[in-house]
Specification:
The chain is mainly alpha-helical. The chain has 2 domains: 74 residues, Arc Repressor Mutant, subunit A, CATH 1.10.10.10; 140 residues, Four Helix Bundle (Hemerythrin (Met), subunit A) (Up-down Bundle). It is built from 10 helices and 3 strands; from the N terminus they run H-H-E-H-H-E-E-H-H-H-H-H-H. The chain has a 3-stranded antiparallel sheet. Helix 7 runs antiparallel to helix 8. It starts with a helix and ends with a helix.
């Protein structure tokens, strides 16, 4: 029963299961080549096999699980090259979003962005990793919405969903919360000035630093 409590949060849904399994894969609790047995997972999450199959399908779409006929679901190995490629694309997409946001955000959107950013400093001060991670998702979503470009929004949200477990993992590193806030501050400052080029560059720098932090979990060391 204790094992379930460690893995499940209140209100178990497919999204929660995807997050829990993905996080365990990223940090190495579930090793590449390991089998994800539907019956075992269903028992652990206290659900039927149907939502488990849906969760595994989402994990497969994220590139974390390989599903093959008669073999079930197997944890895949994500290479540094694969991850670096995705983050490279993410940096450019977020750069576009930040640049457009600096030029297109409404006064209400700018005020909300700055207010949320300043409020998040308290989470950093208190070391609230989980709360800051949730805020971090909203911060970037504000940039995506503020770009006011439907096509870019679709591309960036799709790419972010594949990188989400790795972006969450960065906050396990010492000092990463404060660094993330400082990087956000550079983006917000440029957007509030209406400086599209500076905002775009600050966003690219931020994502590249997130990429470097995330690669620690793929390489297995901080070297």
């Amino acid at each position: 029963m204790r094992a379930k409590k460690n893995l499940i949060r209140d209100g178990t849904t497919v999204d929660v299961m995807v997050r829990a399994i993905a996080d365990r894969i990223v940090v190495g609790d579930l090793k590449p080549g390991g089998k994800l047995d539907e019956a075992t997972l269903a028992e652990r999450f206290a659900v039927s096999r149907t939502p488990i199959r849906e969760a595994l399908a989402q994990l497969a779409a994220m590139g974390l699980v390989d599903r093959r006929p008669n073999r079930g679901a197997i944890v895949t190995a994500v290479s540094q090259a694969q991850l670096a490629s995705m983050f490279e694309s993410m940096a450019e997409l977020e750069g576009i979003c930040a640049r457009f946001s600096a030029l297109r955000m409404t006064s209400h959107e700018r005020a909300a962005l700055e207010s949320g950013h300043q409020a998040s400093s308290r989470l950093v001060h208190l070391g609230k990793e989980e709360e800051y991670e949730a805020y971090n998702t909203e911060f970037h979503s504000c940039l995506y919405r503020g770009a006011h470009n439907t096509h870019v929004f679709e591309l960036v949200t799709l790419t972010r969903s594949r990188l989400a477990p790795f972006r969450r993992a960065q906050f396990r590193l010492s000092g990463r919360l404060a660094k993330s806030w400082d990087e956000h501050d550079a983006i917000v400052t440029a957007i509030m000035r209406g400086d599209g080029n500076a905002a775009g560059e600050a966003a690219r720098v931020h994502v590249n630093k997130v990429s470097n932090a995330s690669l620690v979990f793929v390489s297995g060391s901080s070297d």
